[in-house]
Amino acid sequence: IRKMAFDLVKLYAERRASSGFAFSPDGPWQRQFEDNFPFEETPDQLQAIAEIKADMEAPTVMDRLLCGDVGFGKTEVALRAAMKAILDGKQVAILVPTTVLAQQHYTTAVARFRGFPVHIGVLSRFSTPVQQRKTLSDLRAGSCDLVVGTHKLLQKDVAFKDLGLLIVDEEQRFGVTHKEKLKELS
């Protein structure tokens, strides 16, 4: 526990001292992606989206917690942030606690990004070993823009070419060591 606490203090000091990547302001593809959303955004969604985009465009490392009940549009907020990162050439990882949720997010992402040149992968128990090797290879090469995965994203053989955004769904289901391992990657 003492070593983990020391490592956490060191990691957060390094993160605070380092500068982050400042993402570009919204362009035409971002606006088109957002215009394709088939529902009307709530005021809370619009506020969260604006705050997250402002964080992403700042040259500091971003940590943001987005809370809301089921069905209140958190996934759409996350996908808009993902699109912003992808448009600047960065990779995005969405970490989820269950295989079923990974499949749901993957299906939603495929539907939302349809018509855009975004390569989406998934890492979970539902993926065959061949599919998993292909996704891991694509992540290392940078040809996979967005990956949705369970704890498989935390394995030692997972390497990103240029991870720019990490989205953790249901954060309370992951231990401190899981989350800190991912923060070290970024």
Poorly predicted residue ranges = none
- What is the string of helix and strand elements? HHHHEHEHEEH
Give, in spatial order, the strands making up the sheet with the most strands: 2-3-1-4
Strands, total number? 4
Task: List descriptors.
single chain, 186 residues, alpha/beta, 4-stranded parallel β-sheet, 48% helix, 10% strand
Please describe the topology of this protein.
Elements: H1 2-17, H2 28-35, H3 43-57, H4 74-87, E1 91-95, H5 99-112, E2 120-123, H6 129-141, E3 146-149, E4 163-168, H7 176-185
Parallel strand pairs: 1-3, 1-4, 2-3
Helix pairs in contact: 2-4, 3-4
3D structure, described in words:
The chain is of the alpha/beta class and 186 residues long. It has helices spanning 2-17, 28-35, 43-57, 74-87, 99-112, 129-141, 176-185, and strands at 91-95, 120-123, 146-149, 163-168. It is built from 7 helices and 4 strands, in the order ααααβαβαββα. The chain has a 4-stranded parallel sheet, sandwiched between helices. Helix 2 packs antiparallel against helix 4 (74-87) and helix 3 (43-57) runs parallel beside helix 4 (74-87). The longest helix is centred in the N-terminal third of the chain and has 16 residues, at 2-17. The model has no long low-confidence stretch (mean pLDDT 89).
